[in-house]
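Worked Example 4.2. Consider the chain below.
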Amino acid sequence: MADLSARTAAEELAQSVVDIIGAAVRSVILHGSLAAGGFRPGRSDIDVLVVADGALSDPQIDAMVCRVGRTPLGTAAGIDLHVVTADVASVPTRTPPLELHVGRYERSSIGVEVERGVIAAPDLPTELSMARADGHALRGTRPHDVIAPVPTAWINERGRHWLATWRSRIGDAEHGALMVLTACRIWRFALEGVHCAKGQAARWALDRDPSLSAVRQALHQYESDPAAPIDGDGIAHVLDSVLRETSRGAVNTHS
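Applying the procedure from the previous section yields the following structure tokens:
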């Protein structure tokens, strides 16, 4: 399979985490498209959530950042790694603390992004929810045993925050496809309580509203032609549509 080398990279990263943190590792969870399906070679990242007993030391953080930067990617486009304490994972809050985030984005102008000791991370509940829903443990305890359910209202609230933020950035050609496809994921979760891959979310959105041409363009760019354009007015139409749909409240209200 095309994602085998990415899986190997994920396994290598998981072992590096254990080597650095040692017995304090509660779980190393692979989630996202590589775990749940929809992985696109050269386009998808390796998504990893680490749950640890207690805070990381500065030398451990430095070592983790170094390993993420040096880990061979295989067919993946990058790595998105989050580290949280077991207490945070077992009792989620609306804006929980985050030990570490390292993002390595080979095809983006961002390059490498590092966040250490974040006091309040409002996007973390969504990360926890996705890891619990579709993740599996590469090392340690299974996701459902270390991550408690996250209220859907928190996830929907944060999704609408990003929709409104992106509405003012529709001229950002580099991130147009990401905005559109993630908007589709936000939409589906708000209505059905389902986390899914970008491609799956796009097809779901087109089934609901075939007039969303920017979704079709973003899907084509993501799956076939990275240079394919996406119409700015079409992006605005998608964001407006999803903002309107999600304002009506989620159909699925379970946690």
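The chain has two domains: 4-146, 152-246. DSSP finds eleven helices and six strands in the chain. Compare this with Example 4.1 before moving on.
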